[in-house]
Design a protein that fits this description.
Layout (H helix, E strand, L loop, with lengths): L7 H11 L1 H13 L4 E2 L4 E2 L14 E5 L5 H8 L3 E6 L2 H14 L5 E3 L12 E7 L2 H4 L2 H11 E12 L10 H10 L2 E9 L14 H6 L3 E8 L10
Parallel strand pairs: 3-4, 3-6, 4-5, 6-7
Antiparallel strand pairs: 1-2, 7-9, 8-9
Helix pairs in contact: 2-3, 2-4, 6-7
């Protein structure tokens, strides 16, 4: 999983900057959402419980935050989020949305494989198609373990291996989580809800209703205390 081009971080930064304009509309829509919605099918939090029930007062880092709408959802639930992204243009869009919605939290330019944060800084690390798809899991997952406190939680959403060949197989990813000091608590399969509209891309709602195209991983850093379990 670590056999990446030497300049893969620079390639990802350039790609992120190049597509920043295309995600601004999605960012604005998601910032304005009254309930978190997840993945390509916009599954509401009430049906796909990605976030823990209680994050009030928790220190949270969003790895590969893009326009930082996940951080915004967490801030409204009482968390203290910090966003990290390697794209200057994504962060500029996130700051504009912070101003528009009068909701501010720290945003940092940086790489999820080598973050600027101290050891044991956060209670929760989260990534919805940020670090979880754009960074080497053999690097960003151990880095997430480093910056999480004992019993801190790691939550990430990625493409299923049923859809994307480049996603590491589940067995390999479970082994990496264990080697990094995590225990896997849950694995949620995001199936397309009935009646959902089609989206651009290689998968149809009918297919994804039976074969989930996306999945959510919930892991816990080995320790003795932490956030409450997801309902």
């Amino acid at each position: 999983m670590t056999e990446q081009p030497q300049d893969h971080a620079a390639i990802n930064r350039a790609y992120g900057d190049g597509r920043a304009g295309g995600v601004a509309g999605t960012g604005q829509r998601n910032w304005a959402a009254t309930e978190p919605i997840w993945g390509i099918w916009d599954i509401p939090q009430s049906r796909l419980p990605v976030l823990p029930d209680d994050v009030a007062g928790a220190d949270v880092v969003e790895l590969g935050c893009g326009t930082a709408y996940v951080s915004a959802w967490l801030a409204r639930r009482g968390a203290r989020p910090v966003g990290l992204d390697s794209s200057r243009r994504h962060l500029a869009a996130a700051r504009a949305l912070q101003e528009r919605h009068a909701l501010r939290f720290p945003l940092h330019l940086g790489d999820a494989e080598a973050t600027p944060f101290a050891d044991a800084s956060f209670d929760l690390a989260i990534s919805e198609f940020g670090a979880s798809v754009w960074h080497d899991p053999g690097r960003w997952i151990p880095e997430a373990a480093r910056i999480l406190r004992p019993a801190g939680q790691l939550i990430f959403m990625r493409n299923s291996t049923l859809l994307t060949e480049s996603s590491p197989p589940r067995g390999e990813l479970i082994g990496l989580l264990r080697a990094s000091g995590f225990v896997l608590e849950d694995l949620l399969e995001a199936r397309a809800p009935a009646g959902v509209a089609s989206v651009p891309g290689p998968v149809t709602p009918a297919w994804a209703a039976h074969w989930p195209a996306e999945e959510v991983w919930l892991a816990r850093r080995i320790g003795t205390a932490g956030l409450g379990a997801v309902a």
